[in-house]
Write a structure and sequence with these properties.
This protein is mainly α and 157 residues long. The chain is built from four helices and no strands. The longest helix is centred in the middle third of the chain and has 33 residues.
Length: 157
């Protein structure tokens, strides 16, 4: 299969957009929301932003996988990309659902005592989601950095 420079550019752009969609909501938007709004309202808005971002990352992950297939990337690239897609899917469809269910039952989490079982459960799932978000971001940094077009035709990403 003949690879074209556009496939390398497409892969790198897909990965960079995925990275931006993970980093900006988590490390820029959410802190501002929680600094400016009441906790319950900030959480509601942040949840919607994260959901939209995660779905977008998954769509871009499919695009990245298509480009990766076209240029026949190394196995480690597939492993890291697969792990990112898996973690984001788990975050979008499992972790966030658990957190939403807990919030539905508990109401305003910040109003609960720190030792309340619902507060502890919410904190646990929030922590799991945060760790997966961070790991996905780190894996994407590695993927963006290593996704340059090879100097010679033998080497692949």
């Amino acid at each position: 299969m003949k690879t074209k420079p556009i496939h390398y550019s497409g892969l790198r752009l897909s990965l960079a957009l995925m990275l931006g969609l993970l980093v900006v909501p988590a490390y820029v938007v959410a802190p501002i929301l929680f600094a400016e709004l009441e906790s319950a309202q900030a959480g509601l808005v942040a949840g919607k932003i994260f959901h939209t971002s995660n779905i977008s990352v998954l769509i871009l992950g499919v695009a990245a996988a298509v480009f990766a297939y076209r240029i026949q990337v190394q196995k480690i690239t597939w492993v890291l990309l697969g792990m990112v897609i898996l973690m984001i899917a788990i975050n979008a469809f499992a972790v966030s659902e658990m957190m939403a269910a807990i919030k539905t039952e508990a109401g305003d989490i910040s109003a609960l005592p720190k030792d309340d079982p619902l507060h502890l459960a919410f904190s646990f799932w929030h922590g799991i989601g945060s760790v997966m978000q961070l790991l996905s971001s780190l894996f994407l940094i590695v993927l963006v950095m290593k996704s340059q077009r090879p100097k010679n035709k033998v080497e692949a990403v």
